[in-house]
Design brief:
CATH architecture: Roll
Largest sheet: 6 strands, mixed
Strand content: 25-35%
Low-confidence stretches: none
Order of helices and strands: HHEEHEEEEH
Radius of gyration: 16 Å
Structural class: alpha+beta
Helix content: 40-55%
Strand order of the largest sheet: 2-1-6-5-4-3
Mean pLDDT: 76
CATH topology: Nuclear Transport Factor 2, Chain: A
Oligomer: single chain
Length: 135
């Protein structure tokens, strides 16, 4: 029979996973509603938010970190206009809640979030085909 402490740790891990999953689902919903509305997207981000992306030098990605809600929202609106038709799926990736973005049946990119309170502090995007093939 598991120790009481082990059960408590497992319960907390499940609760954290579920909270992250719910946050990601809310983010997907809000982003769909916001669509091309940069101001609405900005309101979802903390003042010190950062976006990092990895294209592996093979596919297009931001070459440097994107800092601040204004710049991140502009980047998101601009890239969403170029990537119409992506299908988001909430999933667990490396033990964290993530979005998998699909184009047809091919994995296009992954997006993970660091959430602070009810807002996004960091966004990590992986588009590197070599890394996506491993999923």
């Amino acid at each position: 029979m598991p120790e009481l402490a082990e059960v408590e740790v497992a319960r907390r891990n499940v609760a954290r996973w579920w909270e992250g999953r719910e946050a990601a689902e809310v983010i997907v919903h809000d982003a769909k509603v916001a669509g091309g509305d940069a101001a609405a997207l900005e309101s979802m981000l903390t003042d010190d938010a950062v976006l990092l992306s990895d294209g592996g030098g093979v596919v297009t990605a931001a070459l440097r970190p994107i800092l601040g809600p204004v710049h991140i929202a502009r980047f998101a609106v601009g890239t969403s206009r170029k990537n119409v038709g992506l299908r988001p799926e909430v999933a667990t990736l490396n033990g964290h809640t993530a979005l998998l973005l699909w184009r047809d049946d091919a994995l296009y990119s992954t997006v993970q979030f660091d959430i602070r309170g009810e807002r996004i502090q960091a966004i990590y995007i992986v588009r590197n085909p070599a890394k996506l093939r491993r999923l």
